[in-house]
Structure formats: C-alpha cells, structure tokens
Amino acid sequence: MKPQPTLRTRGPDRRHPSWRTLVGAFRGRRKGARRASDPPVQPDYYSPILFAGIVLLLCLSLVDAFATLWWVDHGWATEANPVMAAVLPWGAGSFIAYKFFLTSAGVAFLVFCSPFYRINLILACLDLIYLGLSGYHLHIYLTHTL
Q1: Quick one: DSSP state of residue 9?
Q2: Domain range summary for the chain, segments of one domain joined by +
Q3: What angle do CA 132, 133, 137 make, to 5 degrees?
Q4: How large is the angle between the packed helices 119-145 and 48-74, nearest 10 degrees?
Q5: Of residues 64, 84, 87, the one with CA closest to residue 140
Q6: Distance between CA atoms of 115 and 54, rounded to whole angstroms?
Q7: pLDDT of the chain along its 146 residues, tens only?
Q8: Among candidates 57, 59, 27, which has minimal Cα distance to 44?
Q9: CA nearest neighbour of 88 among 100, 78, 102, 74
Q10: Dist CA 142 CA 146 (whole Å)
Q11: Residue 101 and residue 97: Cα distance in Å, rounded?
C-alpha cells in the first residue's frame, strides 16, 4: 500500500522518474549561477550552437576515420597520429570505435569545462581544423581517382 502524502500535491509525483524526466533533460533552465557573486555551476541547459558544434565535430571525426581507413587500405597514405597508428593493426572497427571514443571524451571534457571557459571558440577552431582535414581528404580522393 502506498503511503499517503501529508501535504496536498498538485500534479504527478516528481520524486519518481517519468517521461518528463527525459524531456526535462533537453529543456533545462539552469544556464549558470543565479547571482554574479555565486561561483560557477554546472548548467543543465546548453545553447543550440554548442550542440551543433559538437555534432559537427563528431561527424567530421567519423569522416576522418573512414577516409583514413580508405587511404591506408589503398596504400595512398599512412596514419600520422602515433596513437591512432598503434590502434590501426587492431582492425577497422576498433580503429573507428577508438577514434570516436577519444573524440567523445574530449568533447565531454570541453562541455564539462563550459561554465569555466568559453569553449565555443575552442569548438569552432576544432570544427575548422576538421573541415580542413575533410577538404584535404576530398582533395586526395579527387587526385587519385580522376
């Protein structure tokens, strides 16, 4: 038997998770500290621009991983990153998973540090680097296939 609440409540019991818990994760309200004198806190709301930058970075990282595997398999290039070059003999699936894990861990660290630093500039620079790298991959592809 459920214990009866001592106070009159309105709406559903918020002590237990429901579908609103998941929706609330995407519609957070805490963007920072309440007062200027308060120390920085972890927000539960992030800007859509930050989300778009993160998604773009993760997608471009996967493009880089697949393109690197393509070039290495065809003998047109070698992996320049020594950490990823050590993972390359483990197979394509391990290479892609390891690269995605490392990129995701770095992005998670940046998001964790977002209340303390302006990471939008860092994320924009990383996106530009990966866009340039993707352009380089496209240039190699067009050079070798045409």
Answers
A1: -
A2: 49-145
A3: 120
A4: 30
A5: 64
A6: 16
A7: 565 555 555 665 556 656 555 555 555 555 555 556 665 555 566 677 888 889 999 999 999 999 999 988 888 778 888 999 999 999 999 999 999 999 999 998 888 777 666 788 888 899 999 999 999 888 888 887 77
A8: 27
A9: 78
A10: 6
A11: 6
Residue 107: count other Cβ atoms within 10 Å of its Cβ. 19
Structure tokens at 74: 């065809």
Whose structure tokens read 């859509």? 48
CA 101 to chain centre: 10
Tokens representing 17?
A: 């998770």
Q: Is the pTM of this model over 0.90?
A: no
Closest to 87 in 3D by CA, of 104, 101, 105: 101
Distance CA 116, CA 24 (A): 24
Phi, psi of 27 (to 5 degrees): -125, 45
Question: How far is 5 from 3, CA to CA, in rounded Å?
Answer: 6
Q: What amino acid occupies position 67? A: A
Tokens encoding 116: 């303390």
